[in-house]
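Q: Got a minute? One more chain.
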Amino acid sequence: MFDHVGIQVADVDASVSFYLRVFGALGLHEAMRFDTEGGPVVALASAGAPQLWFSPARGRETRELHVAFPAPDRAAVEAVYHEAVAAGVQVLHAPREWPEYHPGYYAVFFRDPDGHNVEAVTHGTGPTGPP
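A: Always. Here it is, folded:
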């Protein structure tokens, strides 16, 4: 559905460091960086073309975004959770299954440096993996 998403943030380098650390277990890496008059613009990817772009905010953001990253399995969701805890991130919901979404929806939710709700999720049917 989406080719890429751009997020304006208060501190590009802090946000990039956060996302690389916490979502590194999902293969997220810096794919592109360039300077602009307002500050750096950085693109992250997990495979192929850059999919997540960070640029300097022009003002204070007051709306909460929600971004979910696909994980291949529950172990990857757990790895993201452990990195988030080690980084001192505010965990909104520890990893668990969310049957109200659908059976096998296993996710962790927490806040990024700008207060956005970010998630790592797998859609498998249980500990053994996808259907």
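A: The chain has one domain: 5-57+65-122.
Q: Perfect, thanks.
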